[in-house]
Amino acid sequence: MPRKRTVWQQLKSGLRIAGAIVLGFVFFLALWASVAVLTMHNNFAMRGVHPVLGGFGLLVLSTGLFLTTRYWAKWLLAILAFCTCRLLIGVPAVLVLGHMEREDLSTALVMIPALLISTLLALRFLRKPPMGAERIGVVALNFRPGHHGAWGFCCSPRRMSCTS
Q1: Of the residues 27, 46, 123, 150, which has the fewest C-beta atoms closer than 10 A?
Q2: CA 51 to CA 30: how far, in whole Å?
Q3: What distance, in Å, lies between the first and last C-alpha atoms of the chain?
Q4: Closest by Cα among 44, 43, 122 to 78
Q5: What is the pLDDT of residue 144?
Q6: How far apart are CA 14 and CA 63, in angstroms?
Q7: How far apart are CA 134 and CA 144, in angstroms?
Q8: What are residue 149's phi and psi, to 5 degrees?
């Protein structure tokens, strides 16, 4: 017969889960910002931010990702599946309902097979955490170049908007 947890134990567990989710969002936002500063996307040079700062942030964050791969690799499948579904549904919807620039369409058409392959490879991490060289590959998957990478394209509402 399972033991019942007290209300305090349930509250601590819920706060721990919520904290991990918020920490994950903050971490990947910092990762995106580091790549944007490093590649000077969004005119960071005009704001006085030096690309070396972005490179240092990227080095620190990638080291953190490498050291904690076994904890977050199982969630990678969900993120990749979300991005794949968003592209598979969003691209035809935008083409039918609105306007999509040629550059964005070609990027989306290249990203769909890449995301499908990445999603299939990530299925392996549901049962077994990545080991050895796999860890480097999983971390490298998060560092696609600049805003045209999988995360930037899939998470950017501007790129998948229905404008006429």
Answers
A1: 46
A2: 14
A3: 61
A4: 122
A5: 57
A6: 28
A7: 16
A8: -75, 175
Query: Per-residue pLDDT for 42 more than 80?
Result: no
Amino acid at 6: T
Is 28 in a helix, a strand, or coil? Answer: helix
Instruction: Report the residue count for the chain.
Output: 164
| DSSP code, position 99 | B
Q: Is 144 helix (H, G, I), strand (E, B) or coil?
A: coil
CA 145 from centroid of its chain's CA atoms: 12
Q: Give the Cα separation of 143 and 89 in Å (integer).
A: 24
Q: For the whole model, what pTM was predicted?
A: 0.59
Pairwise CA distance, residues 138 & 69, whole Å? 8
Query: What are the residues whose beta carbons fall under 8 Å from the beta carbon of 126, sequence distance 6 or more?
Result: 74, 77
Q: How would you class 87 by CB atoms within 10 Å of its CB: exposed for 0-12, middle for 13-18, buried for 19 or more?
A: buried
pLDDT tens digits along 84-122? 888 888 778 777 777 767 667 777 777 778 778 878 878
Q: CA dihedral in degrees (77, 131, 142, 161; nearest 10)?
A: -10
